[in-house]
Design brief:
Layout lengths: L10 H14 L13 H6 L10 H15 L4 H15 L5 H17 L6 H15 L10 H8 L6 H17 L3 H12 L11 H13 L13 H4 L5 H11 L2 H10 L1 H6 L4 H19 L2 E3 H8 L6 H11 L2 E6 L4 E7 L6 H39 L1
Antiparallel strand pairs: 1-3, 2-3
Helix pairs in contact: 1-3, 3-5, 4-6, 5-6, 6-8, 8-9, 9-10, 10-12, 13-15
């Protein structure tokens, strides 16, 4: 691809110009007579950071990038790593945006199979988190895997990157994406090393419970670092939110109030979530839910039921309508709180039934077409 240049010169001439530029800024390790040593130039790259003159800073950095992308892979790695370190902590938001653009040019200018692309992407994430520009770098996990797939980062590198992503997304107030990244991070651990992610598993559970828009939590129980927590109070609380009804949560809270509040969880928010989860569980087993049942199971007063049902419908977890005259809720469908083997079996049976019906429709249509063809043949 075409890369921005500091000046329209050869690589050697660019190096000489850059050496002179940095010497004027006070760099002592660059020498016009040894201008081929790009590592010396990169080592002082951050000297070009100038408040109020971001255009010049960007031009200098892009000039360095135009030379970095020409280096052979074995020589490029340590130099590009140093360059990324220099750009990882820009002194201001405006210079952070400059670093973000320069690193993006470098990332896309490198060969897709170059191992240094991982280092550049990781730095991009760090800088984007500082200047709250995560959407310019990361939008979803699948795209990230596609971008980094050719350079084949190992599991340890991916864990390091996912931790940085999670932190940067939280800093940018992208809590939903941050939660997905944390789940992805925890899924990289095995039975053998799951205990290493114990604290991260705890943070993931607390964040998921606290998120007012996260209701389906059963997938967390399958993660190895979460399994390590079995027997702990936090794991017990998570299990309540995954499988139990409101009454079980109230019992847990009554007995472990200090623990729940010590996690930073708010009881009123927990009540709202558990009522919705309990409603979903009731809706799984019945297409008609009398208001009286909801009052009892959800511990609501008669005049609170209708408003609560409207709140549930807004989540789109349940499709239903209210029959105010007969004081009941008519359920069309609901998301399952847990999706286990029996649910896969039900889905398989449903798809099999649909396939059978479609085959019958196809056979009927073929029969009709053949009959019509015969009639036309006879008429002609």
């Amino acid at each position: 691809m075409s890369l921005p240049a500091f000046i329209d010169l050869t690589v050697e001439e660019q190096a000489t110009e850059l050496c002179s530029f940095f010497k004027a800024l006070g760099a002592s390790n660059v020498d016009d007579d040894q201008n081929s040593d790009l590592s010396n130039i990169v080592a002082v790259a951050d000297l070009c950071f100038k408040e109020g003159n971001e255009v010049e800073s960007e031009g200098v950095l892009n000039s360095i990038v135009s030379m970095l992308v020409l280096l052979p892979n074995e020589k490029a790695e340590p130099i590009i790593t140093t360059f990324c370190q220099k750009l990882a902590k820009p002194p201001s938001n405006k210079l952070g945006l400059v670093c973000l653009r320069v690193l993006s040019v470098l990332f896309h200018g490198l060969d897709p199979v170059s191992t240094t692309r991982y280092t550049v992407y990781h730095t991009l994430v760090q800088v984007a988190g500082q200047v709250e520009q995560m959407k310019t770098v990361f939008t979803d996990l699948d795209k990230m895997r596609t971008q980094l797939g050719p350079c084949k980062p190992n599991n340890e590198q991916m864990q390091k990157l996912l931790r940085s992503l999670h932190e940067a997304l939280l800093n940018s107030r992208e809590s939903e994406l941050a939660s997905k990244v944390m789940v992805e991070l925890l899924s990289t651990y095995t039975t053998e090393n799951a205990s290493q992610a114990r604290e991260e598993a705890q943070r993931c559970i607390v964040a998921s419970l606290a998120d007012p828009n996260t209701f389906l939590l059963d997938h967390l129980l399958t993660l190895q670092p979460v399994k390590v927590l079995e027997g702990a109070l936090l794991h017990d609380l998570l299990t309540v939110f995954v499988t139990e009804k409101l009454s079980a949560y109230l019992k847990f809270y009554e007995e472990k109030k200090d623990f729940v509040e010590g996690l930073g969880l708010k009881h009123e928010q927990n009540l709202r979530k558990m009522r919705i989860l309990t409603f979903m569980q009731l809706a799984e087993n019945s297409v008609e839910l009398p208001f009286e049942t909801l009052e009892k199971q959800l511990q609501l007063t008669e005049d609170q039921v209708e408003e609560f049902v409207l709140q549930v419908l807004k989540t789109k977890l349940v499709r239903a309508r209210m029959d105010q005259l007969n004081k009941k809720v008519l359920v069309s469908s609901t998301m399952h709180r847990t999706f286990g083997k029996q649910h896969w079996q039900q889905l398989r049976e449903l798809l099999t039934t649909w396939r059978g019906h479609l085959r019958q429709v196809k056979d009927s249509m073929l029969t009709i077409v053949n009959e019509q063809a015969e009639l036309l043949a006879q008429q002609s």
